[in-house]
Structure formats: structure tokens, C-alpha cells
Design brief:
2 domains; eight-stranded mixed beta sheet; globular; binds zinc ion
Amino acid sequence: MAQRTWNRGLGGITIEDRGNAAGERDLPMIGFELVNGSVGDPCVYIQVPFTRANAMLDCGLNVSVPAGKLLRVADVFVSHAHIDHMIGFDWLVRANLTHDKVLNVYGPAPLAEQVQSRLRAYTWNLDTRAWVTIVCHEIGDDAITTTRLPCENRFVPGEPPRVRPLAEDVIPHPHLRVRFARLEHRITSVAYSLQAPPRMNVDAAALAEAGLAPGPWLRELKSRAALSLRMSPGGRCPEAGLPDDDRIDADGRTLPTKQLIRDLLSVKEGFKLVYVTDTLYTPETRESIVDLARNADVFLCEGMFLTRDADTARSVYHLTAQQAGQLAAQADVGELVLFHFSGRYADDYGALVREARREFPRVRACGID
Ligand SMILES: [Zn+2]
Ligand SMILES: [Zn+2]
């Protein structure tokens, strides 16, 4: 069983899988750092397992993040474009400007127009080479619209946007399973779920019972199961994406792949981190959040107000810390990390944590003590 180690970083918390005493790792974890703690602008630096292409959740002030880390950001998932969630975007572009790479930005409409407006505010008359290309993926009601903004074209779209219908609320990503939910902030605010790939375990007893010896064929079985899992509805059933007549050479015998997967493999869900911020608490948003956050290992959720200020929370379309605790309990998450605290509680931010803890025991906040 892998250990989870929480570290206080520079104004944030990072989570790392240090493995067990023998150094064995259980499941790849998604590292994260609340760049401005639980009090400052929302900005979460995400370490994606198995790659150096990292991510960010929201783009609040980020000048404290070393340039080398900003350079490793490949994807930015924006909840909405209020200034406290986007003010760091220009700095991110600045850090990546002269690098031949793609910087993907996801968020609710009208994201592409908002990003282009920011870039139009600068003068690009001198050296505009084939440096960074910003690709906006705008989440609409039933489609994602992708607009490419190449530096060499002065961040003006060189081609018409590509519109892709949305079958389910999933964003394709090479290393993570990314889901999202639309929330209510008087505009749409988008919540995100980032999940590492599942791990396939072989049941040694079932293998012996089937009279099969382990060998390289098990790797092939696992890889077919993993591919099928990615294609299955909801990403839960490892044999669903395979044709019935698919067969595999197992220890010298040709056997049906689906049956072998059912008999020999168990799927352990990958580490899941869910990010929810800036939303009104309604029956609909509650249902969407609980569905998105169910069994998350880490649930990052705003807890801006105390219950005594619930009327204010409602009027500005935000959650209370108590509601964040209730959501964590209903979604049965591992840990709740509270953030986006209102400055009005500067005398005692701990009160927000205490209110959430009355609903759910495992609550953390960062940079308030
Ligand atoms: Zn907002
Ligand atoms: Zn906000």
C-alpha cells in the first residue's frame, strides 16, 4: 500500500507518492500545489503522472511559480474568466512565448474571444516566429470549439475554428481521464475531474485455477483491456470495447480475450482529483458536483463563506465551507482541500475549516496557519 505524503511547499501543498517502505509504488498520483494557498487567487499547479507535460487549474496570480515549471504546463483548465481566475494567464504566455509548443486552454464560452482580446492588447510587430501556439477549447452547451492562435500569425486564427459535438462531458487527453461539469455562477463556471489511468491487477489464484502460467501474454492482455477501458462508456468496463470474437495467445492456447479479462483481471481506479469553484449551491449543482467528485482522492472545493453569511454566498453565487463539507461527505471523497476564502475572515480563516469539518472529517486548508 503506497503512502501518501503531504508536503507544505512554497505557499501550497503538494502530494507525492513516496511508495511503501520497499519503495514500491501503488498507483500513480496526481501532484498538486495551491499556488496561492487557500486564501489567494485560485491557481492550482498539477503534476501529471508519467509525463513532464503538466497542467494548471485556473490561472490566478502565478508569478511565484518558477519559469521552468510554467514552461512544463501543456494544459490550462479554466473554470471561468473572472479576473481572479485569469490574471495569471498573460504571465503564463510570457513564460512560454519563445517555445515551439502548444498551450491548450479549456474553459466555458466565450473563452476564445476572451483569450484573443487579452493577446490583442499587446503589440506583436517585431519577432513573431513559430513559437508558442495557444489552442483554445471552448466548452459550449453541446460542442467543444477549438481555435488555434499561432504566435507566428500574431495570435490571430489562421484557420476556421473546429467544432466537435460533445457526446459526454469528457475532454480527450493523452495522460488523464478529464471530465467536467457546468456549474452556476450567473455565468457558467466549469468544474473538472482529472483522473490517472487505472491499474490492471492479475488475480494469481484465478490464473493458477485456469491452468495458465504467467508470461508476456499477460502484458498484452492488460494493454488490450486498458485500450478497451478507455473506449468503454464511463471508462469502467475493461472488456466492453472489445469485439466478442477477439482472441489472444495465452500461454500457448488461443482463448477469448473478454473471458480472460473477466476471469483474471481486476481494475483499480486511478487517482482522482476534482476541482470545484465559484458556484451557487442548488439541487442541480449539488447533483452535478457529487456525480463528478464521487470517490475522488482529493476534492479541491471553494469554501468562500461561513454559514452566517450564507445569504451573501447565495447573492454572489458562491459556496459556504459547510456546503463544501456536505458535498465532500456526499461524494465520499478521500480528502477535502478548501480554498478561495473570503478576505473578510482574515482574523480567523480556521473558522471556515472548522465549519467544513463538522460535515466531513478530513479537511485541509493551506497557508492559513
Ligand atoms: Zn467568479
Ligand atoms: Zn472566484
